[in-house]
From TrEMBL:
This is Fe2OG dioxygenase domain-containing protein. Residues 202-315 form the Fe2OG dioxygenase domain. GO terms for biological process: coumarin biosynthetic process. Keywords: Dioxygenase, Iron, Metal-binding, Oxidoreductase. Its cofactor is L-ascorbate. PANTHER family: FERULOYL COA ORTHO-HYDROXYLASE 2-LIKE, OXIDOREDUCTASE, 2OG-FE II OXYGENASE FAMILY PROTEIN. It comes from Gossypium mustelinum. Pfam families: 2OG-FeII_Oxy, DIOX_N. The lineage of its organism: Eukaryota, Viridiplantae, Streptophyta, Embryophyta, Tracheophyta. GO terms for molecular function: dioxygenase activity; metal ion binding. Belongs to the iron/ascorbate-dependent oxidoreductase family. InterPro entries: DIOX_N, IPNS-like_FE2OG_OXY, IPNS-like_sf, Oxoglu/Fe-dep_dioxygenase_dom. The keyword Iron applies.
């Protein structure tokens, strides 16, 4: 007989304090979502009233300087960052066998016994580099997100090999190593749009810190009432995301463009062999708002469990962030103030997801 979760406290105890995660709820035989996960109507995702992203992925092999399509691909990347803040890439340099291995490894890790994963709960984890959890900020959320995750901070290979979970560290390090060159190329394009040279040390500064996550969204008995991840923008510079073939990623339009109107939610459908790239808050701030750190969220499904594996790149905590002076000079005014990244991080991780509200911390005149 399935246990009863009639109140939020019992769910919180079972999922968070015991470290069982949402998967533990599903494995207990639930036939309906506990009240603690039921989202307010305005936060639920109506997939019937969304638009599918119709643009093909960007072929990064054409960024080669000898390609006749080089300038066209540069324009595609810049336009995507200026409008939706999301785009998909193929021929990205990450071996396809790694992408398949990542998905299999994520499913394997979350199928491990609860006690094996719970050793990495934030209050007991043997390393500050690894955190296993559920939802985003359970203590502050009005409704919990239908997600479990394992989050790793990268400092160097030796510490990763020593502290990251044995079952996943090898393939995650391969994923990170093979993705960083692509991230640098994309930043060279995006910052080159503002006159910054490809060898400018700023590019390495903007990706000085890396975090990787494996996210697990168990099949949900009532997907229309829940969200896998609530509305938010990413905090860092650029995010690289591998999603599986199930789908469920939605991005909000900030302006009217060819395939959608301002305020519409656009589905980013899974594309074989592609990676999803999205702009983070730091890049929006550096560009003085030219590039958009798009608000996005994730829907659950009742058909099968879903995994996604993002790499978050960002500056180190002590880095000072301020809009690029050449952009401010052209615009005539700065939209964001100077701050140290650690202060932004404390604000970001100290609150529940609420759209792009995290940017209010840096905006000179927040809306």
């Amino acid at each position: 007989m399935a246990p009863s979760f009639e109140d939020g406290n019992s769910v919180f105890e079972f999922v968070v304090r015991r470290g069982n995660g949402v998967k533990g709820l599903v494995d207990s035989g639930l036939s309906k979502v506990p009240e603690a996960y039921v989202q307010p109507p305005k936060e639920r995702i109506d997939k019937e009233n969304t638009v599918k992203h119709g643009l093909p992925p960007i072929d990064l092999s054409k960024l080669d300087g000898f390609s006749p399509d080089h300038d066209e691909v540069v324009d595609q990347i810049v336009k995507a960052a200026e409008t939706l803040g999301f785009f998909q890439v193929v021929n990205h340099g990450v071996p396809l066998h790694i992408l398949e291995s990542l998905k299999d490894t994520a499913h394997y890790f979350f199928s491990l016994p609860p006690q094996r994963k719970a050793v990495y709960r934030s209050d007991v984890s043997p390393s500050p580099l690894v955190k296993y959890g559920t939802s985003f900020m359970p203590e502050k959320e009005k409704a919990l997100e239908w997600k479990d995750y394992i989050l790793m901070q990268y400092t160097n290979d030796d510490e990763a090999l020593q502290h990251w979970p044995q079952e996943i560290k090898g393939v995650l390090l391969e994923y990170l190593r093979s993705s960083i060159g692509m991230v640098k190329k994309l930043l060279q394009v995006l910052l080159g749009n503002f006159g910054i040279k490809p060898d400018d040390p700023m590019i390495d500064v903007l990706i000085g810190k890396k975090m990787l996550s494996m996210n697990f969204y168990p099949a949900c008995p009532n997907p229309d009432l829940t969200v896998g991840v609530g509305r938010h923008s990413d905090m860092g510079t650029l995010t690289v995301l591998l999603q599986d073939g199930i789908g469920g990623l939605y991005v909000k339009m900030e302006q009217d463009i060819d395939y959608g109107k301002k305020g519409d939610w656009i589905e980013i459908p899974p594309t074989p062999n592609a990676l999803v790239i999205n702009v983070g808050d730091m890049l929006q701030i550096l560009s003085n708002g030219k590039y958009k750190s798009a608000e996005h969220r994730v829907r659950t499904t009742n058909t099968s469990s879903r995994v996604s594996i993002p790499i978050f790149t960002m500056p180190r905590e002590t880095t000072k962030i301020v809009p690029l002076p050449q952009v401010v000079e052209k615009d005539g005014t700065a939209l964001y103030r100077e701050f140290v990244l650690i202060d932004y991080m404390k604000n970001f991780f100290g609150n529940a997801h609420e759209g792009k509200k995290s940017l209010d911390f840096a905006q000179i005149n927040p809306t």
